[in-house]
Specification:
alpha+beta, 38% strand, elongated, 2 helices, single chain, 4 strands, 93 residues, Alpha-Beta Plaits
Length: 93
């Protein structure tokens, strides 16, 4: 069994409030969860209105599959209009 963890550090240049940040994050989290069936949550920078850190976890029997899923998720988040990805970290256990 392989557990893949993806950490995405995000910047929202157009966000002027926590409310607008949460709207963007909700859209990202809902799309990611429904499209890839993974666990996703905001894990850091909850009180900053232009920054967020998302954690994504996937469980698989094959590391290549987990890596592919997490890579596609990172690509999808990078294509979001209102979001800039600052850092991406992937780990496997």
């Amino acid at each position: 069994m392989v557990i893949g963890v993806l950490k995405l550090e995000l910047y929202f240049p157009g966000s002027g409030s926590l409310k607008s940040k949460r709207q963007i994050l909700k859209r990202i989290k809902d799309r990611t969860h429904s499209r890839f069936n993974v666990s996703i949550s905001e894990v850091d920078n909850g009180d900053l209105w232009q920054r967020a850190t998302l954690g994504v976890a996937v469980v698989s029997k094959d590391q290549r599959y987990a890596n592919g899923v997490l890579s596609r998720i990172a690509d999808n988040v990078e294509r979001e209009d209102a979001t800039e990805v600052i850092d991406i970290t992937m780990e496997f256990f």
